[in-house]
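Now read this:
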Amino acid sequence: MWIPTEHEKYGVVLASFRGTVQHGLPLEIGDTVQILEKCEGWYRGFILKNPNIKGIFPSSYIHLKNAHVKNKGQFETVIPVEDSVITEMTSTLRDWGAMWKQLYVKNEGDLFHRLWHVMNEILDLRRQVLVGHLTHDRMRDVKQHITARLDWGNEQLGLDLVPRREFSMVDPDEISVTELYRLMEHRHRKKETPAPASTHHLFVHVKSLMSANLGEELEVFFHIYDGRENRPLSERFFVKLNKSGLPKSPEKTERQCTLFVDLGSSDLRKDVYIVVHIIRIGRMGAGEKKNLCSVQYRRPFGCAVVSIADLLTADSKDDHLLKVYACNTESEWHQIHENLIKKANSRYNLSGSNTGLAVGLQLLHGDIEQLRREYMVLFTRGVSITRKLGFSDVIMPGEMRNDLYITLEKGEFEKGGKSVARNVEITVYVLDIDGQILKSHVAAGAGEPGGDEYHSLVLYHNNSPRWAEQIKLPIPVDMFRGSHVRFEFRHCSTKDKGEKKLFGYSFVPLMQEDGRTLPDGTHELIIHKCEENTSLADCPRYLKMPFSKANLPSNNQTLKGTKESFWITSFLCSTKLTQNGDMLDLLKWRAHPERINDSLSKLKEIDGSEIVKFLQDTLDTLFGILDESSQRYGLKVFDSLVHIINLLQDSKFQHFKPVMDTYIESHFAGALSYRDLIKVLKWYVDRIVDAEHQDHIQQVLKASEYIFKYIIQSRRLFSLATGGQNEEEFRVCIHELFMSIRFFLSQENKTTSPVAQTQAVFLRTFPAVYGELLKIFTVREVAGFVRETLGSLPTAVHADCLEAVKLQCITKTVESQLYINPESRCILLPVVLRVLQAHMQEQRDLVMCARILTSMLSLIQKEENGTAEPVVSEEVELIVESLLGVLLRTILEISNRPQPAGPAMRLQFQDVTGEFVACLLALLRQMSDRHYQQLLQAFSSKDNLRDFLLQIFTVFRILIRPEMFSKDWTVMRLVTNNVIITTVLYLSDALRKNFLNDKFDYKVWDSYFYLSVIFINQPCLQLESFSPSKRKKILEKYGDMRVMMGCEIFSMWQNLGEHKLNFIPAMIGPFLEVTLVPQPDLRNVMIPIFHDMMDWEQRRSGNFKQVEAKLIDKLDSLMSEGKGDETYRELFNSILLKKIERETWRESGISLIATVTRLMERLLDYRDCMKLGEVDGKKIGCTVSLLNFYKTELNKEEMYIRYIHKLYDLHFKAQNYTEASYTLLLYDELLEWSERPLREFLNYPMQSEWQRKEYLHLTIVQNFDRGKCWENGIILCRELADQYESYYDYRNLSKMRMMEASLYDKIMDQQRLEPEFFRVGFYGKKFPFFLRNKEFVCRGHDYERLEAFQQRMLNEFPHAIAMQHVNQPDQTIYQADAQYLQIYAVTPIPESQDVLQRDGVPDNIKSFYKFNHIWRFRYDRPFHKGTKDKENEFKSLWVERTTLTLVQSLPGISRWFEVDKRELVEVSPLENAIEVIENKNLQLRTLITQCQSRQMQNINPLTMCLNGVIDAAVNGGLARYQEAFFVKDYIMNHPEDGEKIGRLRELMFEQAHILEYGLAVHEKYVPQDMRPLHKKLVDQFHLMKSSLGIQEFPAYVRASPVHFTNGSPRTCRNSVPNIISPDGGRGVARRSYPAVNRYSSSSLSSQASNEVSNITGQSESSDEVFNMQPSPSTSSLSSNHSASPNVTSSAPSSARGSPQMAEKHKHSRENACLSPRDRPVSAIFPNPMDPAQRAPPHQIGDATLPRSDPNLSAPDKVRPTPSSWSLDSVKEGAPSFSDSFGKMLCPPVPPRPPYSAGSSAKNMRSQSPVSASRSPQKTTVPPFTPSPTECQSTSLVSNSPVLSGSYSSGISSLSRCSVSEASGTELPAGDHLPHPLPPPTTLPNSVSSSSDEPIRRENKTPPPYSVYERNNPRRPVPLPHSLSIPPQTDPPALPPKPHQLRTGSMKLDGTSDPRVPRPRPLPRKVSQL
């Protein structure tokens, strides 16, 4: 039976449990579990990190831990009873664990490894804490270390700052908000700015001296030297080096390392140096030979200096190599370092080029104890301490030091009978009072131990030596008296075995008779002469003699007159001895009572360091004098006491205050002193008002804290001694003293008056007195003193400084022990509040005010947890009444101030705001229901209440601002929000009661709603973005405050009633923002408000247009910020649809909801596409979809324009310059050439509409230029030029004309790449809405072929599946929950056929019309209908031809547009055959023409082509067609095809004729080595003719000379797209190889078999004149069904024509790559039997013309004269739009050249898309004649039709195929058709007539964004006048020049077609944009 557990509540999992039993809960080791029930060795509970899943687990797997249980029962929570640091560590490490793994995923390796180390370190420390074996101090250090690491990790990972007190996390509910703010601020500051250290130390480590010529031992001395004052700052550090230059004692690190301690910040400057002197130990001369004497001398070697400032910048760990300079002249040795510092180092030599002293130098900062902790190794290993000369900046009590420093300065010696000067050496000894030498008390410096004596260095032959050597004598204090120092002088002879002969001595006693030590300074000592063997052991004898010339009696002339002298400088640094006689006199006052007065007077002149040395003795002396003769010396003793007390205020001596405190507590014995002290103090206070000089009185008041300490302690001693006598007298004295104080404080004075300054001095020290008074008086008494004293200050104080001081006094009062007591607080609070209120109202001293308020409110919080509830409530009431209003005003005032400039000021400004905010929150949190009621009732009028509510709502909005608190202060933000929502709940009642119905106040309600909305939208409340553990903690503590506020908004909204109309539409945006918060409960509460708004708006105005408009506007901006999701869209839709079910306005409501939902779909797609890393194609497509939606469905012009610019930016970034131009043109078309002013919008400045349109025009032209779409740019240039011309702006007109000219040049001179087009189908529900189940045609990138395009699309949609067939998918694919892509290439069908078919138009121009403004695309798929004949498959080979019509022409505002319409026709096998042979004939004619005109560098392409055709024909190629279509069965079964069969026969004959002519040309140009091949071809041709049954060509064929009218070779830069084979395999790109490889084994038959049975490739030869691709009709008759491997292979894209290639190389390569499969189809012989060739001129250009009419009989067909027939090219026509020149941009075309008079030829137009020929050079082409000898006949270029053809040369599903073909021939003048031509009925490959065109265009929904159409549903592309064919038979007159075309089709804003309905234009409301 399961029993609820009592004690087993919490545990940790010891081993993993799989949970395989029924109801088992899987556990992992380390999980923490909460236990609910137990049963026989099993527990039931849950894992704390996932409390929703409960289950059972074995009890043996759990280690139980003690825990507190809160809220026992169903919702109980468990808190483990363990150290809070451990708890925090555990939870933090769990959070870090997940984030740590993410760091690895994000490749943030550095932080990953650092965090890993820190986590391990924390785990190790956690183990130490848990074991519990640490000492208290060690535990504290470990916890400090842990919290520092936790804070570091949280900061690195961007987690929250944790408020802590004593290493433990604090619960924000258990402390006041002000206290919480202080903790956060403290931690924040601690993190930000470490305080700069005031103490610094220099670490020196001597490594070695590198020098070539050592050989002797060295002594190295370091000291720090002040170059400004020319004096040493420290004692010397001394290192001994061996003969190798290395330290002598390497094992003793303290001998080579030192720390120069106690350097002040002022010592770290540029002119402070480390000076190094090096002394050698050895012979007198460095170069002397070794002699027998073993005497060693200390001799100068060199010096080095380095500035301390260099160490501040250098890397502290680097070793330094100091340059050592040798001293040349020993007389300058004493100042060598000074000269080096002055850069006068030229007089010294470097000791050697490689000489240098290697030392480690490092500056360390902080006090010495801190260094011991941080650099533990340094101190444990050993380091000597080198002290400063004198005391450090701060003297610490207890510091013991007694060092005497003596510097051997110089000497003056007589020659002593020598011819040369002496070599003087000094030996120094210290002797005690008994004349014994003190052992080890002479030290050359730190580092080496002291010795018994010291030998100076020897300066060679110098009677005035200057040594400047400093020695240290660390003599104990008790040995100072009677000791003396003796200096013995010896001459060091370099001869006589190097003896040292004594010739004199000096001495100096260390202490005088009166106890004073040797005074600091320079002393001139007397040199007493003596003999070498004189014994100096008898000290008393010579001590009686004078030692200094300054002390000589005046009568001793003998010694005074001597020239020999010795100078030393002494400096004593002692904490016990003094050199000051006045100090000694004072301390010995009893011995000389008569000197007391003088001694007390001189005390002020004594140096402070001397006084603090003897502080206790001095104080005892003063109080002793006071006790014995208070009447006589009372005032002087008091003044002396004041002087000493104020001395301790100095920063240098402030550490001696504890010494004085200890003295007062433990050693002070003046039980009677209090009377005298009070009396003198009162006397001074009474004199304040009248005294002229206040300085001394101010000094007295400064010392008042300690004076009161002495008074109180004295009284306590007296009471103890006497049992409390004279208590009343004492109280009276104190009261009188305070009355005097109050009197002087109450004086009103000007700021500058001395009394005001004295008042300020007193107020500064007054709070320090409270604690002392409390020792004797009760709390209430002291509080009374303070209240009366502070209350006595004048209210109207003029002194600003006094006000500030007064406030400081209040601050200290509030922070004092006195104020903490509730008894005193109720007395002091009114005074404090009065002062605070006055200051805050005037906005003065706000920093201090904030500090006071913070302290007050911190105390209130503490008390709340105690028992004194009524007192606290009363205090809160008082504070609310006095300060709440002024506090709100202050926060508002501060927040609205401009931020101060300086960083320090800004920091202070931020602090004070934060503190006031914390105070406000603390106060509001303390307020109960009663306080709120009192507050709201206290307002005298509604206006006051209204102002208060507005004020508090505004302040709350300020508190919610993100910048109010630091980013990581989540704890503080949550507390703030909790207080705000609690307060708002109280205040909303007041709002309802006071400001509804007739008292409705819009401003208050609006402020309320606005606050609520921004409250809900705060980042810190968006729990979804937090980690699960953090979310759980917040929900447990505060709940979801967003839902609470949302419910409150809904409740308040429902209360509004008819006043809701005031908030429609203003609150729609804010409420929408709230509903977008991803919190289901909040959405469910808030979304119904929109229904309410719709309802009220419907009531008011009969519709809800306002609601709709606002919703749509706000949705866009909010969703683009990342708000909202698919769930929200569904919820919005479902909730509102349900709500409006019963409304009368249901229909319009559903419409609105549907519109908004559709907009959301698109916006969500747009947002997803715009994410970082998404491809540009997706972004552009999505933007186009959204842009169209805004224009067509919503008619939102401003949003439309915004998205135009977003789309423009995307195109520009992707370098789609043409698309960018078309996009920007959409905005351009909305503007007019007017002077209307436009406001600033997007990036446009304020300007006129004309200026903006001009700017847009120029930008568009520039982009058209970049995109090589120059024809479009020319139109805009012309329009701009017209504008400039109309304004007579000839300067700009000139520029524009030049720009236009440059564009024309570019058209002619630069080569353009011809793009591929691909049809892409997006199927499946997983695609974004704008793509789902739609098909598009996409314009490929430059050089992009099918495989590359497919790969790009699959990269853009990585989850998509590529479909391997080209059939339309079924519904299962449409509805699939996946992504399917279907891609194949399509062929463009140009609209502007007229340009393409004109003769004489260069390819550069034609190429534009072939690939621009394309609406329709074609795709052919071959299939077999009926039974397939294995012997001859052509019998059943049909082609399914699909024509796709787009919603918008390409190129346009996107690289792809949706397919609007599909048309499908089937092409019969016969028509196929006709197309094949037409293509091949055209190809042959082209090659022959190129060969004749010498455009081919070699003849190989022609050779290969002839070989392919003849060989295939011989092997049965054409015969297959004969077998298929010329047999009797076929003719009988297909009587309707009679005309086509005839046509096919004609084409075969034509092919034979062309071949014969081609062979003749070939014979003329074929090289010698190719002759055998040519002969073979001729032989095979005869075989071919005989196989066709041709003995002789028909007369009409023979007599007809063939004209190759367009002499230019047909070159194509862009080859045809790849294809997909009919069997469903993916298309394989086929590139063209050189002709030798391609055609060596190819033939018509091989082609046919390739194209029929395995259609997998497409040629990409660079000479594909017509940019076509193979279709089934390309194949000749096939006898061989295997595809050539060369044909199906793939070549690199470099095989395509390069724009930069030289013309001759281009042609040679192009012509080498010709393929029979890639040729145009419809180059045909003129057919005299075809009446279509005799169409009257007025019908030319009509789309209804068929290519051939099968209904015309043979006799009607007229044979042209032999002289005029030609091998003409069929044109491809477009519907004529000459009568509907809409408002469009039609690219300019050069005028058509006139026909020569001798020609009546007109160009017929067919429906097949013709690719323009390129004409790099215009050449004259001879006519095509039956024999090679006729090749040189006269040129007929001027009257020849253009050699052109259809594209239908491929059978692949990816092929470009012609739509229809029509044959054309020249008509003799005067010929007319006997009757009109009927429309075609039998040709499946002919296109529907143009009469269908307007219908099709009117019935579809057009996108309004083509460059060509603004108002037309589908803008036709008209032909310019220069290209339209006139309706008369005569040759046309010269067409007008291009500039005359502006008024017609060339203008953007021309008249539109009257037949087309014109939609209503957009309203112009945003035209000011």
